Sequence to fold (107 residues):
Amino acid sequence: MPEFLVRIETRLPQDLPEAQRAQLLDAESARGRELLESGKLRRIWRVPGRTANVSLYDVADADELHELLSSLPRRGARSTSARTLTQSADAAAAYRRRSQLVLPKGA
Fold:
């Protein structure tokens, strides 16, 4: 399955009532936990000083990624970009070599 690097920047309206803002943030947090628990959202990092994050998704294809991102409650108040990631040939070869190592007894 391909992995996607996703960048999300949120811009909630300044005049959004506090109760509605809190409800939206709670819903977004709950949906994020669901995606993490499903394994589709593999990692997420907050961007300090901004209402933004960078995340790693492991999904079947771009259509599934679009479906998942569309399920996030703040979809109308954010900008999103995504890039498909592929493992470099050198990294894949190094991983295969490392996984084939046999440690001596007692090591």
